[in-house]
Amino acid sequence: MVNLYHKVLLGLGSNQAGAWGEPGEALTRALDELRSRGVELTAVSGFAATVPVGPALQPGYLNAAAAGHTALEAEALLAMLKSLEHEAGRRPGPRWGPRPIDIDILDYDGVVLGWDTPHDPMRPAHLVLPHPELHKRSFVLEPLAGIAPTWRHPVLGKDARQLLADLPAVF
Question: Which of 32, 95, 99, 120 does the annotation list as catalytic?
Answer without folding.
Answer: 99
